[in-house]
Amino acid sequence: MISLEQKVISFLGKNKEMSFKDEDFSYEAIFLCNVKPDPTNARYLPTVMISDEDAALFVNRKISKRTLAKMYDAEGLVLVGHNCFINCLPHGSPDWKKANETIHSIVDLANNLAMSEIIQVPTVYPIQDGQFQILTGHRRYFALLYTYGINSVSQFKVYQCEPILLKTKQFQENASREELPQYGKLVSFNAALLELQTLSDARLRLGLKKLTVRDTVSILGISMGSFDNYKVLTRYPCVLSAYENGIALPFMKAKKIVLTIEEQYKEKHDKSVLNVTDKHHINEEIDCVLNGKTQKVSPPRSAFKFKKINSANTIKTLFEANIFQLDIGIDWQELDWGKAADVNDALAQVIDYLESHNRDIP
Questions:
Q1: Partners of 85 in the beta sheet?
Q2: By the 8 A CB rule, do 20 and 169 touch?
Q3: Considering the entire predicted model, what is its pTM?
Q4: Exposed site from 84, 236, 262, 270, fewest CB < 10 Å?
């Protein structure tokens, strides 16, 4: 199987540049039975489509869920047909709950469709034998199927061929749609960013300039502010997990939580650059806040700090002189050596004293 990098290098070798304007497409009426969902899409619902006849039998209670599940080998999947969704995932499981939430949102969309008959058409591209793969619009496709049945015909935006940067195209198509689930948006952004990194690497291999941040933002079709929001929210795995598990929190509030915890961690540990271990600890802290968990309190670590020393004589005196005998104004007997903050204050006083008296100290 040809890798994405090989496809991109081959394309750039022939064309030098990759256009991100709309590829050739047309609007066509297609039978819903000839359209296939994309199982790699974050908004994918694991489904089996049933015939209009079987859907009618189920709606009229002439056939059972168990019988249909056996007929269509649908255990662990969702049966979908005209006027029915049948959730065959293990009842009460996290996947069953997620599927139910998706089903409710699709039924709401279908009800709006039935009332207005206005819908942004799903986008597809041809695969083989007259079949089409969904690029964007999985929920809209299922809403059409639920409303009209598997044997109905509907309008689709059809690309001439599969886009090379498939996930980037999906993100572009959906970037302006506010009603999309937050988790799907984050996953879609991550997938598009990985593709664009592959494109950037391929350009370098061919002696071309790599993509800048501004180039990436322009290709994705979003503002620099939105790009920063996505970058912050996809920085830590726990944020994606929280949205996957149904947390309902505006992106800006989640971003503020992430940045606040990061800043507090840097101040607490006197760090400007975070390593892998730091990010792991920050991920745990963010997870606790987003999910309302009680974080384990680690034993406080003593962090003794020297303030900035400007004179070599001060360092020399620190090694040579008996600091306890100098008239610095510190009661060494009363100093709580177990408190890092108190010890740091004492160290600061010592250094201030030595900096101002280093010529007077024998």
A1: 80
A2: no
A3: 0.69
A4: 270
Give me the helices (H) in 60-151, please. Answer: 65-71, 94-116, 138-148
Q: Is 218 exposed, middle or buried (0-12, 13-18, 19+ CB in 10 A)?
A: middle
Q: What are phi and psi of 157, to 5 degrees?
A: -90, 115
Q: Residues 66, 79: contact at Cβ < 8 Å?
A: no
Instruction: Report phi then psi at 103, rounded to 5.
Output: -60, -45
Closest of 232, 221, 138, 220 to residue 181, by C-alpha: 138
User: What is the identity of the amino acid at 166?
Assistant: L
Residues in contact with 132: Cβ distance below 8 Å, sequence separation at least 6, in sequence order: 30, 34, 35, 36, 124, 125, 126, 156, 158
Of the candidates 191, 190, 133, 195, the residue with the CA atom closest to the CA atom of residue 164? 195
Pair 314, 349: CB distance under 8 Å: no
pLDDT in tens, the chain (362 residues): 678 878 888 877 776 666 665 568 899 999 999 999 988 876 778 999 999 999 999 999 999 999 999 999 999 999 999 999 999 999 999 889 889 988 998 999 898 887 776 567 899 999 988 999 999 889 899 999 999 999 999 999 999 888 888 899 888 877 767 667 788 889 999 999 999 999 999 888 888 899 999 999 999 989 999 999 999 999 999 999 999 888 888 999 999 999 999 999 999 988 888 999 999 999 999 999 998 875 554 444 556 677 778 778 778 777 777 878 777 878 777 777 777 778 888 888 888 887 777 655 55
Q: How far is CA 130 from the centre of its chain?
A: 34
Phi, psi (5° rounding) for residue 90? -55, 120
Query: How many CB atoms sit inside 10 A of residue 46's CB?
Result: 14
Structure-block tokens of residue 303: 């962090």
**What's the rounded Cα separation, in Å, for the pair 36 and 38?**
7
